[in-house]
Amino acid sequence: MQPSACALPAVLRRQQLVRLSADGWARALDAPWDAGARACLDLWAARGLPLVVTRQPPAPGDRVATGLPAPARHGRRRLALAVAPRDVLFLDEFPPAATVARLLPRTLGAPWRALLAALAAAGCAPRVYGGYGWQALTRLAYVHADSDLDLLLPVDDAAHADAAVRALAAADWDGPRLDGELLFPDGAGIAWREWRDHRQGRVAQVLVKRLHGVALETAAAGAA
Length: 224
Prior knowledge:
The protein is an alpha+beta fold. The chain has helices at 22-29, 35-47, 109-121, 130-138, 158-169, 192-199, 219-222, and strands at residues 17-20, 51-53, 64-69, 78-83, 88-92, 127-129, 149-154, 178-183, 189-191, 206-210, 213-217. The strands form two sheets. Strands 6-7-8-9-10-11 form a six-stranded mixed β-sheet. Helix 5 links the parallel strand 7 (149-154) and strand 8 (178-183). The protein starts with 16 loop residues before the first strand and ends with a helix.
C-alpha cells in the first residue's frame, strides 16, 4: 500500500531534501520533458532519489519549487520541478559531512577528521551539499577536479557563527576549496567567507539567501 504523504511544515527551508511518493513521481513524469531530462528523471524515480527545495516564488502557491542538478552522465543540467504537497512522502537532509570521507584522497583523511572535530568543538554539526553531497547521496558521478566542498553549517546566532568560521579559517587543509553557508535558525543562509569578511570589517553587508529571495543585509539581520 502506498504510504501517505507527509504534512509539510509551515516554513520550508532551502537545501532541504524532498522524497516523492510513487504517485508523485508518476505525476512529475507526466509532463513534456525532453528526452535527456526524462532519462534523468526516470532514474531518479526508479531509485527514489531526492529533490532539493529551491527558492520559492514570492506569492504563496499550491506547489513546492524543487529541483536537482543532474549528474555528469546526464549533462550536469539543472532540472526544476513544482510538486504538490500531497506527493511528498517526507522531508530529508543532506548527509553529515563525515560521510564524504570516502570521496576524498586518503591523504586528506586525518585533516578532514581534524576539521570536523574542530567544528564539533565549536558546536557545529555540518552537512555537505553541492557536488560532494549529491555524489554521497546518489553514488553517481558529480565531483570533478575543480569541485568545491560545500558545507551547510547550522548555527544559533552571530557568536556561534563566529566560532564555526574560526574553525574553518584555522583548518590545516590542502584539499578541495571549503565553501558553503552558515544556516541561521530563521532559514537565512550566508556564505561563511562573506560572514568572515563582514565581521573583520572588509565588507559592509552580506548576501543573505532566504526561501523567497536574496538580499544584501547587515550580518545582524541575517543572524536574527
